[in-house]
User: What shape does this take?
Amino acid sequence: MDKINSHHQNVNPPKKHIFVLSGQSNMSGRGGVVKNSSNHNKIWDGVIPPECCQDPSILRLNAALQWEPAQETLHVDIDTKKVCGVGPAMPFANAVRRHVVDALLGLVPCAVGGTAIKEWARGEDLYQNMLNRAKESVKGDHHSQIKALLWFQGESDTSSEDDARSYKVNMDKFIHNIREDLNLPSLPIIQVALASGFEYTEKVREAQKGIDLPNVICVDAKGLALKEDNLHLTTESQVQLGHMLAQAYLAHFHA
Assistant: This one.
């Protein structure tokens, strides 16, 4: 009987507005990740701001490709080689859900810390995993739709002048490829201009802000507070960024 009910639910799933979350560690989230005082290993402090709390209308696609209630930490089974903390996606979703009355919100975490743009090229494992997860999120579900890709990446491309110089070309290709492979030629993409990085951060930021493609919006994270490592956003900054992403989505793409 359970199988029959489960099958029936799969035939008529609730409508979802789906958001793909991709990039590196500041998208997967390091807010609240601290060193354990006893052994100096990194742990998440477990602090969940009100803006990041669970809501029945917000789901996430887990690593097993099953929808489940979304909660921090969203990338725990995706970005598995590092300790995940608070990212921007839950505050984003909680801000957006107030403007969506006829559907659930579905978050598809795909970000992996320490990854360069070339690792997100078509054919690479990270790209293929993101593509597969995005396709799976709407598989057999004609009522749901991928509404946007949220992208926060680039810190790993700021150490080398060559990498920084080629960032814009690589990002342009990425946008073209993911839109083509999802058969969504106008897929909205909201990218985050870096808040931190290394020697060539400004060159990558210039590339990010200089991308001039339809339905691509840039949200600037510069000036948001960083943790002691001067690389990762604090929990409070991730909440701010989530609200900035939500404002960009609602202003430019939400009908």
Observations:
- The CA atoms of residues 58 and 93 lie 7 Å apart.
